[in-house]
Amino acid sequence: MTFIRDRWGGHDDHITDEEAAAWRAKHADRMEPVTQAELEKSRKSASH
After folding, report:
1. How far apart are CA 44 and CA 42, in angstroms?
2. Terminal C-alpha separation, the chain
3. Could you give the residue ranges of the DSSP H alpha helices within 1-48?
4. Which residues make Cβ contacts (< 8 Å) with residue 2, sequence separation at least 6?
5. CB 19 within 8 Å of CB 46
6. What does DSSP assign to residue 32?
7. Model's pTM, two decimal places?
8. Residue 2 and residue 22: Cα distance in Å, rounded?
9. CA-based torsion, 18, 19, 25, 30: positive or negative
10. In angstroms, rounded to a whole number, what is the distance separating the alpha carbons of residues 20 and 23?
11. pLDDT tens sequence for the chain (48 residues)
């Protein structure tokens, strides 16, 4: 996730192991890829 954020020009703090584990647990049953719109929404909510 940190790589993706960096590639999109994000200069936020790096994703911690705990944050990645929480995201994986929350989305464990997800079968479809994450959309760009969802990532943008997540990025905006994380910056507040």
Report:
1. 5
2. 18
3. 2-7, 17-26, 36-46
4. 14, 15
5. no
6. S
7. 0.49
8. 14
9. negative
10. 5
11. 666 666 666 656 677 788 888 888 988 999 998 888 887 777 666 655
